[in-house]
Design brief:
Blueprint: H1 2-59, E1 102-103, E2 118-120, E3 127-128, E4 133-142, H2 149-160, E5 172-176, E6 184-189, H3 191-199, E7 211-213, E8 216-220, H4 221-226, E9 233-234, H5 235-250
Parallel strand pairs: 1-9, 4-5, 4-6, 6-8
Antiparallel strand pairs: 2-4, 3-5, 7-8
């Protein structure tokens, strides 16, 4: 009896092991799956953390402009070091940009746009020039800008009456009027208003340029205040170029090109688009009364 029990004992152990093996394998599989899930979850957390650190590094105020890959950047602290000074916030760009090459002061604000209504300069009936063909003109300044219609009209009259201006041809003279009929009107306006007036005639002034439309000589306040990167010298000279160029269109002159390297640019040349080897010049005539011309464009 004892011998048969001893012989059956190994059989019982084998059967017990056979029953336990599937359960053990199943438990092992569960543990492996759980471990993989935990690892995957941890990887997701690490990836999310690294992405957040990268965004904070790029956009944060204390990165000093340095570049770093996501794997080496660290979460930003309130201050990068106890001695570091916080960066001053960048100043928002204002409509009155810094002065360009023309020596404009930039002290007059240049709003992006205005109401589109104008104040007309009062006239005293003075005529500049001796020519028999009298051109009647008005000067109007958009409301809400820091340029008076009176001062603008006084300056424009001085440009038109200059011996280097259009009156030198002996044909044209100019009379400022504030009412009644007129041949053209000089309007000084904000960039947005210039774009609207010129755009109605199919011209794209990009918030930067002047234009001549119908009887309107439309002067961009930005150019009146800041001048042009292409035009060195006093801002008053560049204003003279604006008036001479646009009034030149009104009395029948078209665009002209550079006559040659080192020569004065014609007043009818679009100098704001580049001098092409010419020397900047605001006047139609030189001091000797010679017309400064270039090839027609």
């Amino acid at each position: 009896m004892g011998k048969r029990q001893a012989e059956r004992a190994p059989d019982r152990r084998r059967r017990r092991l056979t029953r336990l093996l599937p359960a053990g394998l199943a438990l092992t599989a569960v543990m492996l799956a759980s471990g993989a899930a935990v690892a995957h979850w941890q990887d997701d957390r690490d990836a999310a953390r690294r992405a957040a650190e990268f965004e904070n590094h790029v956009d944060g105020p204390s990165d000093g402009g340095a570049t770093s890959s996501p794997s080496t950047s660290r979460s930003p602290s309130p201050s990068s070091s106890p001695s570091s000074k916080p960066k001053k916030p960048k100043k928002s760009s204002t409509p009155s940009a810094s002065p360009s090459h023309s020596s404009g002061t930039g002290t007059i604000p240049v709003p992006a746009t205005g109401p589109g209504t104008f104040t007309t300069a009062q006239a005293d009936g003075t005529v500049v020039g001796t020519g028999s063909r009298v051109r009647r003109y008005k000067v109007m300044v958009e409301d809400g800008i820091d340029v008076s219609a009176k001062s603008a009209a006084t300056y424009i009259a001085s440009v038109l009456g200059d011996r280097r201006g259009w009156t030198r041809d002996g044909v044209d003279s100019f009379k400022l009027v504030s009412s009644g009929s007129y041949d053209f009107v000089v309007k000084i306006a904000t960039p947005g208003t210039v774009d609207r007036i010129c755009g109605a005639a199919g011209l794209d002034t990009h918030g930067e340029l002047d234009c001549s439309v119908g009887t309107d000589v439309v002067v961009n306040l930005k150019r009146w205040v800041l001048g042009s990167p292409q035009f060195p010298g006093p801002i008053t000279e560049y204003r003279a170029l604006i008036i001479n160029h646009e009034v030149g269109h009104r009395i029948g002159h078209g665009h002209e090109g550079c006559p040659g390297p080192g020569k004065p640019a014609p007043a009818m040349m679009q100098q704001i688009k580049g001098l092409h080897g010419c020397v900047a010049n605001a006047w139609p005539y030189d001091k000797y009364g010679h017309y400064i011309s270039g090839p027609p464009v």
